[in-house]
């Protein structure tokens, strides 16, 4: 029985400052349903899809609540990461709400974000092949 790999190893996390600044400078910012924003950049050459999660201290003063939201976002991504088309995508998830969303709502938002990334990259591929 072949099950998808539902892990999130260090290689799939975005940690390098240069990579993060490149993502913020050259990435595409979008909104997902709910309180989630994301920024992505295709074709990083890393061979892996890498993510970073941010929950601003401005909205959640207590670290316990920030960590809860980051855990929920990471787990939602981890369970749906196989749905991303291709490899070499850097993604930054930013939680912009002021209330704590349930896990099921975050799961749905991450799924919508992944679909949006896939749709945008397919249109980019179609435009580049049409030239």
TrEMBL record:
Its EC number is 3.1.26.5. GO terms for cellular component: ribonuclease P complex. One of its GO terms (molecular function) is 3'-tRNA processing endoribonuclease activity. It catalyses: Endonucleolytic cleavage of RNA, removing 5'-extranucleotides from tRNA precursor. GO terms for biological process: tRNA 5'-leader removal. RNaseP catalyzes the removal of the 5'-leader sequence from pre-tRNA to produce the mature 5'-terminus. It can also cleave other RNA substrates such as 4.5S RNA. The protein component plays an auxiliary but essential role in vivo by binding to the 5'-leader sequence and broadening the substrate specificity of the ribozyme. Belongs to the RnpA family. This is Ribonuclease P protein component. The lineage of its organism: Bacteria, Pseudomonadati, Bacteroidota, Bacteroidia, Bacteroidales. The gene is rnpA.
